[in-house]
Design brief:
The protein is mostly helical and about 200 residues long. Helix content is about 55%, strand content about 0%. Helix 1 packs antiparallel against helix 5 and helix 4 runs antiparallel to helix 5.
């Protein structure tokens, strides 16, 4: 699956597309977006604490993403639309859904994305993102894959933030001229990994 860092980066991107870091009143929204982006992996607690595998991984479904975003919306309903920290439903759903979307593009493990409506589980026909690998600090492949994943994801997320903030096209184009060659190298590295 995709790494915790990649998911957290997606949650950060949703925050940055919606808020500015200079707005201190919006800071409480940051952990909510990041939390939504990583919460689908809470089923790993069953594996780590009880050595139990949860199958199917219901936390990796569209239903879970909607429920998690809905719970976050209920928990933040006291915020008003004009508040700096107001979080619209669409942004909460985007943060929550980013997890299953990123894991889908790893292409290594089928996910029950449309459960209970559809079986069998779905996977991308090819992996755009590397798997996190065995979670151990001494695992060199974990660090290599994390670097590749961030090299693929961060430019895309930065572009999405720039588009959401309506950054002038000439600024985006100049930025892309510098970034796209490196991004293509990371993407090529990811596509060349065995799944």
């Amino acid at each position: 699956m995709s790494s915790l860092m990649g998911h957290a980066a997606a949650g950060l991107a949703v925050y940055l597309a919606r808020h500015r870091l200079q707005e201190q009143r919006s800071w409480p929204a940051l952990p909510i977006y990041v939390g939504l982006a990583v919460c689908a992996d809470f089923d790993y607690l069953a594996l780590w604490l009880f050595d139990a595998r949860v199958v199917p991984r219901l936390t990796h479904t569209a239903v879970f993403a909607v429920v998690a975003a809905g719970l976050a919306r209920l928990g933040t309903a006291h915020r008003r639309r004009h508040d700096a920290g107001w979080m619209p439903w669409s942004a909460l759903l985007l943060a929550s859904g980013s997890h299953v979307w990123l894991d889908f593009w790893v292409g290594a493990h089928p996910l029950p994305l449309l459960w209970p409506l559809s079986r069998p589980d779905l996977t991308a026909p090819f992996g755009l993102l590397p798997s996190a690998g065995r979670l151990a600090l001494g695992n060199i492949y974990l660090w290599r894959n994390l670097l590749i994943e961030l090299g693929v994801l961060l430019p895309v997320l930065a572009m999405l933030v720039a588009l959401a903030r309506r950054t002038p096209r000439d600024t985006v184009a100049r930025w892309a001229l510098w970034v796209v060659p490196g991004w293509l190298a990371f993407l090529g590295g990811s596509l060349s990994l065995q799944r």
